[in-house]
Q: What sequence folds into this?
């Protein structure tokens, strides 16, 4: 037994076909018998967050699903968790790499690819708070740290710290092509200002769109923004 409980459900995403997703049963799940997550700075309270479905992830998946596939583009999802947006892009034929710092994220992604009859996709370890990476602390099937240059970098609910030092913006800038775009879905956590400043430092200009909506079609009400950064 893995030490945690899971569930499987069909997930509706606006504008694209449903996905079947295996996720953690709830926020109470925790299993880190070898201390892999602890060595990466992931506490017991943060441990289950990667394995849950979040509304911001659905908004990100819907936007990527509406984007025309460009064969030459390389797309990176940061802090992917269950990788909903990555799965949508991969199914559409885009060149997508999913990344996260959780030691089980790659395993869950691989399982969800099988559930949806999708072929293999790239998964890499990606962590921006500066924690040193022990080679044995990540999923053995995805031992490579994210690298290279990407034309589009996407993420949802990744502005969970004020980050005045700009570690996330620096992480993105290292991986972004000189001409690139960055999409961040933020559920109004209040940490946008510092991120805006640090992205501007790397030459990005920002546009934002409100994603607020009332409860509809069984989906809970949502308040948040789509932040689009472009560097030309």
A:
């Amino acid at each position: 037994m893995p030490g945690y409980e899971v569930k499987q459900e069909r997930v509706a995403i606006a504008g694209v076909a449903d996905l079947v997703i295996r996720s953690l049963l709830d926020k109470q799940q925790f299993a880190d018998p070898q201390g892999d997550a602890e060595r990466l700075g992931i506490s017991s309270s943060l441990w289950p967050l990667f394995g849950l479905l979040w509304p911001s992830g659905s908004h990100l998946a819907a936007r990527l699903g509406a984007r025309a596939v460009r064969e030459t583009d390389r797309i990176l999802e940061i802090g992917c968790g269950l990788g909903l947006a990555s799965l949508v892009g991969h199914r559409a034929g885009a060149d997508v790499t999913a990344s996260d710092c959780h030691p089980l994220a790659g395993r869950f992604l691989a399982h969800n690819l099988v559930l949806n009859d999708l072929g293999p996709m790239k998964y890499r370890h990606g962590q921006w708070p500066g924690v040193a990476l022990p080679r044995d602390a990540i999923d053995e099937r995805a031992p490579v740290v994210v690298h290279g240059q990407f034309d589009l970098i996407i993420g949802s609910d990744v502005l969970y710290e004020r980050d005045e030092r700009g570690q996330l913006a620096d992480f993105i800038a290292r991986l972004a092509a000189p001409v690139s775009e960055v999409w961040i879905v933020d559920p109004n956590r209040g940490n946008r200002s510092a991120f805006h400043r640090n992205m501007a430092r790397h030459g990005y200009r920002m546009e934002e769109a409100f994603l607020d909506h009332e409860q509809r079609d069984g989906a809970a009400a949502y308040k948040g923004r789509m932040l689009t950064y472009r560097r030309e």
